[in-house]
Amino acid sequence: MSPQPQAAVGAPLSRVDGRLKVTGKAVYAAEHDIEGAVHAVLVDASIGRGRITSLDTAAAEKAAGVLRVISHRNAPKLPYRDNAGSNNPPGHRLRVFQDDRVLFHGQPVAVVVATTLEAAQHGASLVEVRYDGEQPSTDLTEAEPGEPANYARGDAEAGLRSAAVRLDLTYQLARNHHNPMEPHATVARWDGNKLTVWDKTQWVMGTRDELSAVFGLPAESVRVINPFVGGGFGSGLRCWPHTVVAALAARETGRPAMLVLSRRQMYFGTGFRPSYAYRLRLGSDRRGRLNAAIHDMDAETSSYETFVEATGAPGQMLYSMPNVSQAYRQVPLDVNTPIWMRGPGFATGSFVIESAMDELAHELGIDPIELRLRNEPDEDPSNDLPFSTRRLRECYTVGAREFGWHRRSPRPRGRREGDWLIGMGMAAGVYHSGSNAAEARVRLDADGTALVETAASDMGPGTYTSQTQVAADALGLTVRSVTFRLGDSLYPPTPPHGGSQTMASVGSAVLDGCDKVRRQAVKLAVEDRGSPLYGVAADDVVVRNGRLHVPGNPARGETYKSLLARNNRSHLEVRGSYGGPSRPGRHSISAYNATFAEVAVDATLGLVRVRRMLGVYDAGRVISPKLADSQAIGGMVGGIGQALLEHTVTDHRDGRIVNANLADYLVPVNADVPDVEAIYLNGEDHEADPLGVKGLGEVVLVGVAPAIANAVFNATGRRIRELPITAEALL
Ligand code: MOS
Asked: Which positions fall inside the Aldehyde oxidase/xanthine dehydrogenase a/b hammerhead domain (predicted)?
């Protein structure tokens, strides 16, 4: 069989939607200009726990432009059917305006709907709420944890006792918020019993199912649309209460309603990366061979839902070690429910493990890379499965060479330039490769162009572009001849746009659909007496630039256009599908990286500047190198944030988030970001999925914070086991 020529996949294309984005023509959730839309503004609770004793809406209702004030006093009872899907964690989701209880500071207690945004904002300021407040519990280190989820292999206690070298380390990791540029927003419109929402979401199907459960509608009665998403990092992975409020406001007023969360409201209106208290005990022999690890993880969750993430995973499989035990305890607090944030769980767990490995290396006088190599497993120690591909050794070698690791002083405080202490650090990163069932509709039109549709999202990684590349090669068309549409729940279903699974899942469905359409066309040609390809073996035919031919004999062939015209076909259409991993449980499949950082720390002021970073990635096949670079840079920037800046601060007296704005919640800006470079060990993983990709979006953040923390230690001799690493901690 002649393979399809690959022209688009692997090419460093610019975004196919780039022009729309930079000319302002890409339409984000709140920019949908829906005729007759009114504005909804939330009133949020100013206590951290308790009950609403009175809610006076008289002044608001009299204000100019205000149409309606909705609260638990007048809201209809909503069905809130059970919905185990839609990424709802176990528990009871927040039911907006269904009772007088306040579960966290900032919870929506009323919504003001008005003809203009200003009128709605003014109205919201006039609503008088009185509370019977209780002391909220928001401090992870003070609260009572729930029952642990345990993991064990071997005998970790005994292993630790017998270890020649033992470390007992305690880490504190701050809560982080996603802070995408585009705020969360929803426009909702009812047409009779049918609901359409334009919503910032990473999963139109999940939001559709949740709204249908909340309002008691058949799924077909709800349509969710999101052609563009201005960043997400996980904040759009479930349907949050404000989306329900927007739909409720529209239903109660009989007008389409728009609700945009303010930046402040984003801090309690959507989820966050939970804070952790993490104790790790680690034992090894004198040559650095790991023997045992005991992990005690306490993570915050809300009082009403139990959010779980894969924080334990890296500690189970990153290094060869016979004895591991883990206890992962959720600590219910009076906060809103957390959610996955880029590199979820793995970024947290890897910070701890990779910081500890650096401590162990220092303790034993072994180079940190050498220590990791001595503990590199031959198969996945958590399940004894062979790795599909694991090129972590190569990540270390290539990274060390390209970064100039030999220039690192093994002695902390070994390098100084004026006031600056210079240090280098590295860490390994891992993120499991997942994929799920997805479908795609592919239509080849008589004019020789194609249309591909899926319900996927593009929160920024470049789904539009990379999927177009896959489709173009499979169809044998140029990228320009393919239109890729996403972001509509009426399109064929896809899994959440998260967990690094979009390329593997949606891409495989697109590949399947495009392969099928191309084969249909080839079959049509070889069986058509009027075709120059009549009688040729179908397997010998390839398509390039829309022309069907046999390789080596380009003269004999014809275009899709002429083929379809002669056969009186307006189009060919199929539904492509991907059923999920074909051989689940046969291999351990993950993406890996080695991340290197060089920092300068002001010896007097404790100021940390990252000077340069390098990430080397084993993420399988790279579909779109330019977009992959953007992903890696973004991941490293996010990791700089996690390491040095990001920290959601709660006032435990009343549960208020005190830095709920982008002036006080610090994220890296240009001056914080030095030269960052990414190298890919490009290569297909044949076990992962038909495209051979292992996912990139998450792994690029994993390992960044520990690489920086380890560089800070190398520079200063100070080991900071708290994120973010602040100047105060270094003084
Ligand atoms: Mo990613 S945390 O699944 O958006």
From this structure: 23-135
At 554 the pLDDT is 79
Band of the pLDDT at 1, cuts 50, 70, 90?
A: confident
Q: Is 350 in contact with 621 (CB distance < 8 Å)?
A: no
Cis ω before 79 (30° cut-off from 0): no
Q: Is 487 in the pocket of ligand 1 (CB under 6 A)?
A: no
Give residue-wise pLDDT tens across range 680-708. Answer: 998 999 999 999 999 999 999 999 999 99
- Regarding the beta carbon of 499 and ligand 1, being less than 6 Å apart is answered yes
With a 6 Å cutoff on the Cβ, whether 638 touches ligand 1 is: no
d(CA 46, CA 108): 10
Determine the pLDDT at residue 367: 98
The H or E element that residue 349 is part of is helix 346-364
pLDDT (average), residues 593-620: 98
Q: What is the per-residue pLDDT across 360-374, written as a single tens digit (0 to 9) for each?
A: 999 999 999 999 999
Averaged confidence pLDDT in the chain: 97
What is the DSSP-derived secondary structure letter of residue 459? S
Task: Tell me if residue 398 falls in helix, strand or coil.
Answer: helix
677 annotated active-site = no
Other beta carbons within 10 angstroms of residue 478's beta carbon come to 15
The reply to whether ligand 1 has any atom less than 6 angstroms from the CB of 341 is yes
Rounded to the nearest whole angstrom, what is the distance from the C-alpha of residue 395 to the centroid of ligand 1?
24
Task: Confirm if 643 and 720 have CB atoms less than 8 A apart.
Answer: no
- Residue 207 token pair: 């939001």
Paired tokens of 8? 């688009």
- Domain 18-25+436-578 of CATH type 3.30.365.10: yes
175: Cβ contacts below 8 Å, ≥ 6 apart: 272, 273, 274, 275, 300, 338, 647, 648, 650
Q: Which has the closest alpha carbon to 201: 416, 30, 325, 374?
A: 30
Class of domain 32-134+181-231+236-269: alpha beta
Q: Note whether 456 and 506 are within 8 A (CB).
A: yes
Number of the ligand 1 atom closest to the C-alpha atom of 235 = 4
- Residue 50 backbone class (left: φ over 0; alpha: ψ -120 to 50; beta: rest): left
Give the separation between CA 589 and CA 391, rounded to whole angstroms.
12
Each domain of the chain, given as residue ranges in start order, spans 18-25+436-578, 32-134+181-231+236-269, 276-434+585-730
Three-class secondary structure assignment of 532-596:
CCCCCCHHHCEEECCEEEECCEEEEEEEHHHHHHHCCCCEEEEEEEECCCCCCCCCECEEEEEEE
Domains 18-25+436-578 and 32-134+181-231+236-269 share a fold: yes
The answer to whether 430 and 350 are in contact (CB under 8 A) is yes
| Domain 276-434+585-730 annotated CATH 3.90.740.10 | no
Nearest atom of ligand 1 to the alpha carbon of 697: 1
Do residues 56 and 128 make contact, with C-beta atoms less than 8 angstroms apart? Answer: yes
CA 100 to chain centre: 34
| Helix, coil or strand: residue 66 | strand
